Amino acid sequence: MAGKKYALVTGGSRGIGRAICIALAGELNYPVIINYHANAKAAEDTREIIIAQGGEAELLPFDVSNQAETHAQLENWKAQHPEDMIEVIVNNAGIARDGLFLWMEQADWSDVINTSLHGFYHVTKPLMQDLLRHRYGRIINVVSISGVKGTAGQVNYSAAKAGLIGATKALAQEVAKRHVTVNAVAPGFIDTEMTKALDEQELKKMIPANRFGKAEEVADLVCFLASRKASYITGEVININGGIYS
After folding, report:
1. For the purposes of burial, counting CB atoms within 10 Å of the CB of 126, is it exposed (0-12), middle (13-18) or buried (19 or more)?
2. Positive or negative torsion for Cα 232, 175, 95, 64
3. Alpha helix locations (H) across the chain?
């Protein structure tokens, strides 16, 4: 298949997603598709950073939890890029609705599962055939320490991310013969807008590295897994958490 090979990052407008977009464009020279749901300004800012650094990027808004909307936007992108394909898929979009399970509302359960777990299906499934036909691809799922060990107050988030870990391991076995790798990255406490409300000074005491991680450090790991250097790594969940749980 001729044409350009793209990287798609869901939830790519801010935080870890933004850092991944910038790294894939800068380190691996991928034209990056920045997916976002609501924050068009943040997505545009991310695009401008990449372009200022000599990279290529475009925006593709859709809500990963909405299958019809996701499929329509991906089909529309394919129609506009008949010679091109998406070679790297980073399923990063996720939301948190924390609270004790005893008081958890149905919407808080469903919204978190729909975004992290169903979102993976909605985005990856329509692009799968191209990867298999192309006989090369990288699928990287951003999970969480919560999905690996479980976190109190995050039963919904832990369930969504643990489900995505299971999906990662199973899909990896289905597509390995076609040189498509599927891996998960499980961040611990990373300094982003999502962790701003946390008591960093108190939490640092639990972390052997004695600090929160940086979004760029997660992006570096994703970049490695997206590269050809990682061809023999598949079905793995790689923790990046400063030693808090491994």
Report:
1. middle
2. positive
3. 15-27, 40-52, 67-80, 106-113, 119-134, 145-149, 155-175, 200-204, 215-226
| The pLDDT of residue 57 | 98
Please tell me what DSSP assigns to residue 118. Answer: I
Burial (CB < 10 A; 0-12, 13-18, 19+), residue 53, is: exposed
Residue 191, judged by CB atoms within 10 A of its CB (0-12, 13-18, 19+), counts as: middle
pTM, full prediction: 0.96
Q: What is the mean pLDDT of the chain?
A: 95
* Residue pointed to by tokens 């990279």: 55
Identify how many contiguous H helices and E strands the chain contains and give both numbers.
9, 7
Structure tokens at 47: 């695009």
Contact 56, 31 (CB under 8 A): yes
Q: What is the pLDDT of residues 129-143, one digit of tens each?
A: 999 999 999 999 999
What helix, strand, coil percent values describe the chain, rounded to 5?
Answer: 50, 15, 35
For the annotated catalytic residues, the residue numbers are 157
Model confidence pLDDT, tens digit, residues 205-235: 899 999 999 999 999 999 999 999 999 999 9
